[in-house]
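Go through this one:
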Amino acid sequence: MTERKTLSPKQRRQRNREEMIEAIVNSARQIMREQGVAALNLNEIARMLGMQTPSLYEYFPNKLALYDHLFRVGTRHFRAYMAQIRTASPAAAGWEEGLQVMTAYVQWSVENPELFKLLFERHVPGFVPSDESMAEMYAALTEGRQQLGDSLRAANL
């Protein structure tokens, strides 16, 4: 028999907040996937979640803050996906590794077109990722650059 852990009221509020943020993010991604990244609409998110639009401001102060959160979510998802590819076949080297990395990049982009457009293209007028979000993206790019360099060295290029 499993034991249920009793959450304090503060822990329960935090869990509920995290679940609502996840629901907002999932709804936002669905809208961006279906209608385009720049078509994100807080009224539509609220309608999808059965809530009033002003309630969304308890989680994100404005639409640009939501885009910034989505940028961070996308960056983390992309980094985790690419790290999984690297650990899935650590023996790959040179051209084989390069091909695996490029295939994974394209596959991630096809599976997550809304995040790809937000991260690697500029579809949202006026959106500039925060310094915190860009720091995560720079870390991802540094990892990718290092891996590419390792592959090129292994291939004697």
About this structure: Residues 9-35 form the longest helix (27 residues). The two ends are 58 Å apart (CA to CA). The helical segments are 9-35, 42-49, 53-56, 63-88, 94-111, 113-120, 131-154.
